[in-house]
Design brief:
This protein has helices spanning about 20-30, 70-80, 90-95, 120-130, 150-155, 180-195, 210-215, 220-230; strands spanning about 35-40, 50-55, 55-60, 140, 155-160, 165-170, 200, 205. By secondary structure, the protein is of the alpha/beta class.
Protein backbone atom coordinates (compact mmCIF):
# COMPACT_ATOMS: atom_id res chain seq x y z
CA UNK A 1 0.00 0.00 0.00
CA UNK A 2 1.39 3.51 -0.82
CA UNK A 3 2.74 5.42 2.18
CA UNK A 4 3.62 9.02 2.90
CA UNK A 5 5.30 10.73 5.83
CA UNK A 6 8.00 13.35 6.38
CA UNK A 7 11.41 13.10 8.02
CA UNK A 8 13.24 16.29 8.97
CA UNK A 9 16.84 15.24 8.43
CA UNK A 10 18.14 14.85 4.83
CA UNK A 11 21.21 12.93 5.97
CA UNK A 12 21.88 9.62 4.28
CA UNK A 13 21.46 6.47 6.31
CA UNK A 14 22.66 2.89 5.90
CA UNK A 15 20.29 -0.05 6.14
CA UNK A 16 20.75 -3.78 5.68
CA UNK A 17 19.98 -5.22 2.25
CA UNK A 18 16.71 -6.84 3.36
CA UNK A 19 14.11 -4.05 3.72
CA UNK A 20 10.37 -3.87 3.95
CA UNK A 21 8.46 -1.13 2.11
CA UNK A 22 8.45 1.18 5.15
CA UNK A 23 12.23 0.96 5.55
CA UNK A 24 12.80 1.63 1.84
CA UNK A 25 10.45 4.61 1.92
CA UNK A 26 12.18 5.88 5.05
CA UNK A 27 15.64 5.72 3.50
CA UNK A 28 14.62 7.26 0.17
CA UNK A 29 12.76 10.13 1.79
CA UNK A 30 15.46 10.87 4.34
CA UNK A 31 18.21 10.78 1.70
CA UNK A 32 16.26 12.99 -0.69
CA UNK A 33 15.03 15.39 2.00
CA UNK A 34 11.61 15.70 0.36
CA UNK A 35 8.19 14.15 0.80
CA UNK A 36 7.78 10.92 -1.18
CA UNK A 37 4.69 8.88 -1.98
CA UNK A 38 6.13 5.41 -2.62
CA UNK A 39 4.48 2.50 -4.41
CA UNK A 40 6.26 -0.85 -4.65
CA UNK A 41 5.01 -2.91 -7.58
CA UNK A 42 5.57 -6.10 -9.56
CA UNK A 43 5.29 -4.18 -12.84
CA UNK A 44 8.02 -5.51 -15.12
CA UNK A 45 7.39 -2.94 -17.86
CA UNK A 46 7.85 0.22 -15.81
CA UNK A 47 10.53 -0.79 -13.29
CA UNK A 48 11.20 2.71 -11.97
CA UNK A 49 9.29 5.95 -12.55
CA UNK A 50 8.76 9.22 -10.71
CA UNK A 51 6.42 12.16 -11.02
CA UNK A 52 6.43 15.45 -9.12
CA UNK A 53 3.08 17.10 -8.45
CA UNK A 54 2.00 19.64 -5.84
CA UNK A 55 5.26 19.43 -3.92
CA UNK A 56 4.98 15.65 -3.56
CA UNK A 57 7.07 13.09 -5.43
CA UNK A 58 5.21 9.97 -6.53
CA UNK A 59 7.78 7.21 -6.93
CA UNK A 60 7.05 3.74 -8.27
CA UNK A 61 9.67 1.03 -7.87
CA UNK A 62 9.79 -2.65 -8.72
CA UNK A 63 9.90 -4.95 -5.70
CA UNK A 64 13.48 -5.98 -6.56
CA UNK A 65 14.75 -2.69 -5.09
CA UNK A 66 13.81 -3.81 -1.59
CA UNK A 67 17.11 -5.72 -1.68
CA UNK A 68 19.22 -3.00 -3.34
CA UNK A 69 22.38 -1.79 -1.62
CA UNK A 70 22.99 1.85 -0.65
CA UNK A 71 24.82 2.95 -3.85
CA UNK A 72 21.81 1.86 -5.93
CA UNK A 73 19.39 3.59 -3.55
CA UNK A 74 21.44 6.78 -3.76
CA UNK A 75 21.34 6.62 -7.55
CA UNK A 76 17.55 6.29 -7.38
CA UNK A 77 17.53 9.47 -5.31
CA UNK A 78 19.73 11.15 -7.92
CA UNK A 79 17.36 9.96 -10.67
CA UNK A 80 14.40 11.50 -8.83
CA UNK A 81 16.21 14.74 -7.97
CA UNK A 82 17.49 15.34 -11.51
CA UNK A 83 14.34 13.95 -13.18
CA UNK A 84 16.27 11.46 -15.24
CA UNK A 85 19.90 11.31 -16.29
CA UNK A 86 22.35 8.43 -16.51
CA UNK A 87 21.77 5.50 -14.16
CA UNK A 88 24.61 2.98 -14.64
CA UNK A 89 24.23 1.32 -11.22
CA UNK A 90 20.47 0.93 -11.61
CA UNK A 91 20.91 -0.61 -15.06
CA UNK A 92 23.49 -3.09 -13.75
CA UNK A 93 21.26 -3.93 -10.79
CA UNK A 94 18.24 -4.60 -13.02
CA UNK A 95 20.33 -6.81 -15.31
CA UNK A 96 21.63 -8.78 -12.34
CA UNK A 97 18.08 -9.29 -11.03
CA UNK A 98 16.18 -10.05 -14.24
CA UNK A 99 15.12 -13.32 -12.65
CA UNK A 100 12.81 -11.35 -10.34
CA UNK A 101 10.88 -9.88 -13.27
CA UNK A 102 7.60 -11.50 -14.15
CA UNK A 103 7.62 -11.92 -17.90
CA UNK A 104 4.67 -12.53 -20.14
CA UNK A 105 4.75 -15.65 -22.24
CA UNK A 106 5.41 -14.28 -25.72
CA UNK A 107 3.05 -15.23 -28.50
CA UNK A 108 4.48 -17.72 -30.92
CA UNK A 109 5.91 -16.01 -33.98
CA UNK A 110 5.42 -17.44 -37.43
CA UNK A 111 8.86 -16.68 -38.86
CA UNK A 112 8.99 -16.04 -42.57
CA UNK A 113 12.21 -14.63 -44.02
CA UNK A 114 12.02 -15.65 -47.67
CA UNK A 115 9.97 -13.15 -49.66
CA UNK A 116 8.99 -13.05 -53.32
CA UNK A 117 11.76 -10.57 -54.13
CA UNK A 118 13.92 -10.15 -51.00
CA UNK A 119 15.41 -12.61 -48.50
CA UNK A 120 15.59 -11.12 -44.99
CA UNK A 121 18.05 -13.76 -43.74
CA UNK A 122 20.73 -12.74 -46.23
CA UNK A 123 20.07 -9.01 -45.64
CA UNK A 124 20.30 -9.46 -41.86
CA UNK A 125 23.47 -11.56 -42.07
CA UNK A 126 25.22 -9.10 -44.37
CA UNK A 127 24.38 -6.10 -42.18
CA UNK A 128 25.33 -7.96 -39.01
CA UNK A 129 28.79 -8.69 -40.42
CA UNK A 130 29.35 -5.25 -41.96
CA UNK A 131 28.07 -3.01 -39.14
CA UNK A 132 27.70 -5.01 -35.91
CA UNK A 133 30.53 -7.53 -35.90
CA UNK A 134 27.96 -10.34 -35.74
CA UNK A 135 26.71 -9.21 -32.30
CA UNK A 136 22.97 -8.87 -33.04
CA UNK A 137 21.19 -12.14 -32.31
CA UNK A 138 17.58 -11.01 -32.77
CA UNK A 139 15.20 -12.92 -35.00
CA UNK A 140 13.72 -11.38 -38.14
CA UNK A 141 10.57 -12.00 -40.14
CA UNK A 142 8.20 -10.40 -42.60
CA UNK A 143 5.18 -8.90 -40.85
CA UNK A 144 1.51 -9.41 -41.74
CA UNK A 145 -0.19 -7.51 -44.52
CA UNK A 146 -2.72 -4.83 -43.55
CA UNK A 147 -5.43 -3.14 -45.55
CA UNK A 148 -5.12 0.46 -46.69
CA UNK A 149 -1.93 2.03 -48.03
CA UNK A 150 -1.78 4.70 -45.31
CA UNK A 151 -2.04 2.06 -42.59
CA UNK A 152 0.49 -0.20 -44.29
CA UNK A 153 3.03 2.62 -44.68
CA UNK A 154 2.69 3.76 -41.07
CA UNK A 155 5.33 1.34 -39.77
CA UNK A 156 8.03 0.03 -42.10
CA UNK A 157 9.76 -2.00 -39.41
CA UNK A 158 9.62 -2.74 -35.69
CA UNK A 159 11.61 -4.44 -32.94
CA UNK A 160 10.09 -6.14 -29.88
CA UNK A 161 12.32 -6.48 -26.83
CA UNK A 162 9.86 -9.04 -25.38
CA UNK A 163 10.17 -11.49 -28.27
CA UNK A 164 13.59 -10.21 -29.43
CA UNK A 165 12.13 -10.17 -32.95
CA UNK A 166 12.42 -7.73 -35.84
CA UNK A 167 9.39 -7.44 -38.13
CA UNK A 168 9.62 -5.87 -41.57
CA UNK A 169 6.62 -4.45 -43.43
CA UNK A 170 5.79 -6.85 -46.32
CA UNK A 171 5.26 -3.83 -48.59
CA UNK A 172 9.05 -3.74 -48.81
CA UNK A 173 9.05 -7.15 -50.46
CA UNK A 174 8.53 -5.66 -53.91
CA UNK A 175 10.62 -5.45 -57.05
CA UNK A 176 10.24 -1.65 -57.03
CA UNK A 177 11.84 -1.34 -53.58
CA UNK A 178 15.61 -0.94 -53.94
CA UNK A 179 17.80 -3.27 -51.92
CA UNK A 180 19.59 -0.40 -50.19
CA UNK A 181 16.30 0.91 -48.77
CA UNK A 182 15.25 -2.47 -47.39
CA UNK A 183 18.73 -2.77 -45.86
CA UNK A 184 18.33 0.66 -44.26
CA UNK A 185 15.03 -0.34 -42.60
CA UNK A 186 16.52 -3.61 -41.34
CA UNK A 187 19.66 -1.76 -40.13
CA UNK A 188 17.46 0.71 -38.23
CA UNK A 189 15.68 -2.10 -36.37
CA UNK A 190 18.96 -3.90 -35.69
CA UNK A 191 20.16 -0.74 -33.96
CA UNK A 192 17.11 -0.92 -31.70
CA UNK A 193 17.96 -4.54 -30.93
CA UNK A 194 21.54 -3.66 -29.96
CA UNK A 195 21.21 -0.25 -28.27
CA UNK A 196 19.50 0.30 -24.92
CA UNK A 197 16.59 2.74 -24.87
CA UNK A 198 17.60 5.97 -23.14
CA UNK A 199 15.44 7.70 -20.54
CA UNK A 200 15.01 11.42 -19.95
CA UNK A 201 12.65 13.04 -17.45
CA UNK A 202 11.09 9.62 -16.91
CA UNK A 203 10.35 9.18 -20.63
CA UNK A 204 11.86 6.59 -22.95
CA UNK A 205 13.76 8.00 -25.93
CA UNK A 206 13.86 5.49 -28.76
CA UNK A 207 15.72 7.70 -31.25
CA UNK A 208 18.32 9.42 -29.10
CA UNK A 209 21.23 11.47 -30.39
CA UNK A 210 23.51 8.44 -30.07
CA UNK A 211 21.00 6.35 -32.03
CA UNK A 212 20.78 8.91 -34.84
CA UNK A 213 24.58 9.12 -35.02
CA UNK A 214 24.80 5.34 -35.43
CA UNK A 215 22.01 5.44 -38.00
CA UNK A 216 23.91 7.93 -40.15
CA UNK A 217 26.78 5.45 -40.41
CA UNK A 218 24.72 3.43 -42.89
CA UNK A 219 26.49 3.63 -46.25
CA UNK A 220 23.40 4.71 -48.22
CA UNK A 221 21.83 6.86 -45.49
CA UNK A 222 21.05 10.02 -47.51
CA UNK A 223 20.02 8.01 -50.55
CA UNK A 224 17.65 5.90 -48.46
CA UNK A 225 16.03 8.95 -46.84
CA UNK A 226 15.47 10.56 -50.23
CA UNK A 227 13.86 7.41 -51.61
CA UNK A 228 11.66 7.02 -48.53
CA UNK A 229 10.38 10.60 -48.90
CA UNK A 230 9.51 10.05 -52.57
CA UNK A 231 7.79 6.74 -51.82
CA UNK A 232 5.81 7.69 -48.71
CA UNK A 233 5.33 11.37 -49.52
CA UNK A 234 6.39 12.42 -46.04
CA UNK A 235 9.47 13.41 -44.06
CA UNK A 236 10.79 11.15 -41.34
CA UNK A 237 9.49 11.83 -37.80
Amino acid sequence: MPMSFTLKSPEQISLPFERDETALHNQLQQTLGEKIFLTVTDNSTSIISSRRKGGVISLRLHRMFLKADDPVIHEIVKFVRQRGGKTPLIRLYIRANRGLLKTRTPKSVNVKTKGRHHDLTSVFSRLNNDYFGGRVDAGITWGTRKRGRAVRLRTLGSYSSHTHMIRINPLLDARSVPGYFLEFVVYHEMLHAEMETERKDGRRIFHSRAFRERERQFAHYERALAWEKRWTGRDRP
